[in-house]
Amino acid sequence: MPLNDDAQIEITAFAWVPDFAQGVVRDLRVRWALEEAGLDYKVRLLGQQRPSEYLLEQPFDQVPCFNDGTVRIFETGAILQYIGEQRESLLPRDPQQRFRAIQWTYAALNSVEPTLINLLLIDIFFAGEEWAKLRRPGAVDFANLKLKRVSDWLGDKQWLEGDRFTIGDLMMITVLRFLRHTDLVAGFPNLTAYIQRGEARPAFQQALADQLAAYRENEPVAA
Amino acid sequence: MPLNDDAQIEITAFAWVPDFAQGVVRDLRVRWALEEAGLDYKVRLLGQQRPSEYLLEQPFDQVPCFNDGTVRIFETGAILQYIGEQRESLLPRDPQQRFRAIQWTYAALNSVEPTLINLLLIDIFFAGEEWAKLRRPGAVDFANLKLKRVSDWLGDKQWLEGDRFTIGDLMMITVLRFLRHTDLVAGFPNLTAYIQRGEARPAFQQALADQLAAYRENEPVAA
Fold first, then answer.
1. Assigned CATH topology for domain B9-89+203-217
2. How many CB pairs under 8 A join A and B?
């Protein structure tokens, strides 16, 4: 099992987050990729108040950071690429296939995620605010358009580029999960099946279990 | 001069866009990188109504696409990496330096751009809407926080990772330019100087001139 206190690879994650964030915090992506790659890793857990020095590791005060003694980086897209370069099963070596997979990590993070996170913020963080109520219908329309674009591309393919799972799929599936508090994805049966195919992978199951286990161990005691 | 009708590399761009978008449409990033690399390219100009087949090239109906006969990809982050792999001056070969540069392209596109684009949309596309008026102060605060994070990291360094310009800087500078309709960046003198250093590069100047020249040639005739 890749979770190993003696591992060379260290990532950062939160010790605990509220329910709405459990199972979607971004260290999940990296845990999943490391499980797919069979690379041992350990986790440095951080509280909701990070020491100011953490900004020297992660200037945006987010998780995860990644450090294997050779490379010290943040941003899940870069980390997935780095892991992918060690495992052809996650990132093909052929130039066209390789850059198609890389392209999909950027597409997930820049062409899809911002629109889905916008709706998540409206529904979770700003639910009581007047602007959020006024904006929600337009934000839903925009999220549906993005889902349609991905659904139309995917068609009846198993993965984004055919029958081969890559870091591009891993990233896209974790991004699509940001809408789990809505029924929007259910409007696109091929996307629903695509997410389920990803979530059924043993590496995903292990990664999710390990993220959630840390939250359970560090759950704040009720006052 | 890299713009060359006989070039092997082809990118897509818009024939014309309204004033607010001129100089920030994303083909600028790729033109800039190709100029830095000294790689010839030609441009396939698209109208505001694309044929539906374009979605087979670019599932999100955006520009640019990139095709050099070897690799056919979209997403500017992936394209900059591909160009960078051909020019060590844009993407170092040392693993740590290489992945730091790659990391900054993701940071620009995922940790910074969505917040800045959100403000741009409020100010340009939704300016008359009630929700936009109510949301704007919070959107400004969030944009300022992102600028502070980048500014604090940059400090008095010339580029994000020191004295070496990379695709990470190229991406971050084009992202920061999305706020040019505001005076927010002026609140961070080191970011202002950083953007100016990027814009002063001859490759940027050529790329911008070539993007704008196409718009001038294809400006709609007033009715």
1. Glutaredoxin (3.40.30)
2. 120
